[in-house]
């Protein structure tokens, strides 16, 4: 199996891509730590893994809170003895996040807290463990919106994902000498609650997003998780500091 016994902390494991990741990682032999805001959500993801015969534990943590981020890594170590991969997948995209000219400061700060501080804090507590082990893989989820402008603005979200890309490169350079690789994935629009809840309310936003996509469809969670699986596995041992853009070709489409 590609991830035999690798301990993987997945944040946002109760959501669209996180839940799929928990299932697919466990099917490849990983021991999965399912993290989400409530115990109920995190536990339901772990229960799905266990029902399919995989190994999983759950912990409630708001990744934007330092004590809780520390607790999720401590829980992984206490339960499974180590942390081989940190999959920073949790993220938010609130409807109130729009253009800079009409986004309130509270919304901006909340998006930054979860999408950027959350990645920082996960790394702050996982990377020292990985350095002690002499090996580890950090997988940060950014977005295609961080690398091109969008006429349907979500400026806090876009800026937050740009920060994730920049941080990924810095970590890749700092910690590769200690055996810890850091990479990001920039998904295009994927059929998960995060995107669909928003698009069902806005037909025009949906039309624009599909018109730009050469494949003519949204992506599926497993089409991103396959890439994360590669990054968590030893197959990617020389992949470091990369941003893997998986978007059906949107970002190479001029018209
Ligand atoms: N769906 C897309 O089109 C798309 C595209 C590009 C990038 N992304 C990114 O992919 C990642 C996963 O997105 P998704 O579409 O599966 O979203 P989702 O909304 O389906 O799931 C996100 C999960 O994160 C959890 N979460 C939210 N805030 C949290 C916090 N503070 N602490 C811990 N957990 C928290 C939620 O409870 C939820 O279970 C996100 O980082 C998102 O920004 C999504």
Write the layout of secondary structure elements.
Blueprint: E1 7-11, H1 16-27, E2 31-36, H2 39-51, E3 55-60, H3 66-80, E4 85-88, H4 105-133, E5 136-141, H5 155-175, E6 180-187, H6 193-199, H7 203-211, H8 221-232, E7 243-246
Parallel strand pairs: 1-2, 1-4, 2-3, 4-5, 5-6, 6-7
The structure holds nicotinamide-adenine-dinucleotide.
Describe this structure in words.
The chain is of the alpha/beta class. It has a single domain (7-190, 220-242), classed as NAD(P)-binding Rossmann-like Domain (Rossmann fold), CATH 3.40.50. 46% of the residues lie in helices and 15% in strands. It has helices at residues 16-27, 39-51, 66-80, 105-133, 155-175, 193-199, 203-211, 221-232; strands at 7-11, 31-36, 55-60, 85-88, 136-141, 180-187, 243-246. It has a seven-stranded parallel beta sheet, with helices on both faces. Helix 1 (16-27) links the parallel strand 1 (7-11) and strand 2. The protein binds nicotinamide-adenine-dinucleotide. Residues 11-12, 14-18, 36-37, 41, 62-64, 89-93, 114, 118, 141, 143, 187, 189-190, 192-195 line the site of nicotinamide-adenine-dinucleotide (NAD). Nicotinamide-adenine-dinucleotide binds at residues 11-12, 14-18, 36-37, 41, 62-64, 89-93, 114, 118, 141, 143, 187, 189-190, 192-195.
């Amino acid at each position: 199996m590609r991830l035999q016994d690798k301990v993987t902390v997945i944040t946002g494991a109760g959501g669209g891509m996180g839940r799929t990741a928990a299932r697919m990682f466990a099917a490849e032999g990983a021991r999965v730590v399912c993290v989400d805001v409530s115990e109920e959500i995190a536990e339901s993801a772990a229960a799905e893994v266990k029902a399919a015969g995989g190994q999983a534990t759950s912990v409630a943590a708001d990744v934007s809170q330092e004590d809780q981020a520390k607790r999720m890594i401590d829980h992984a170590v206490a339960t499974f003895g180590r942390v081989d991969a940190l999959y920073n997948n949790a993220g938010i995209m609130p409807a109130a996040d729009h253009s800079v000219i009409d986004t309130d400061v509270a919304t901006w700060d909340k998006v930054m807290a979860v999408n950027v501080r959350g990645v920082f804090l996960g790394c702050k507590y996982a990377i020292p463990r990985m350095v002690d082990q002499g090996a580890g893989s950090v997988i940060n989820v950014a977005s295609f919106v961080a690398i091109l402008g969008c006429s349907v603005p979500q400026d806090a979200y876009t800026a937050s994902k740009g920060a994730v890309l920049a941080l990924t490169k810095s970590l890749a350079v700092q910690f590769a000498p200690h055996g810890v690789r850091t990479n990001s994935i920039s998904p295009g629009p994927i059929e998960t609650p995060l995107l669909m809840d928003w698009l069902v309310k806005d037909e025009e936003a949906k039309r624009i997003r599909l018109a730009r996509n050469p494949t003519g469809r949204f992506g599926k969670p497993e089409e991103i998780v396959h890439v994360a699986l590669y990054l968590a596995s030893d197959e990617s041992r020389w992949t470091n500091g990369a941003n893997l853009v998986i978007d059906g070709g949107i970002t190479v489409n001029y018209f």
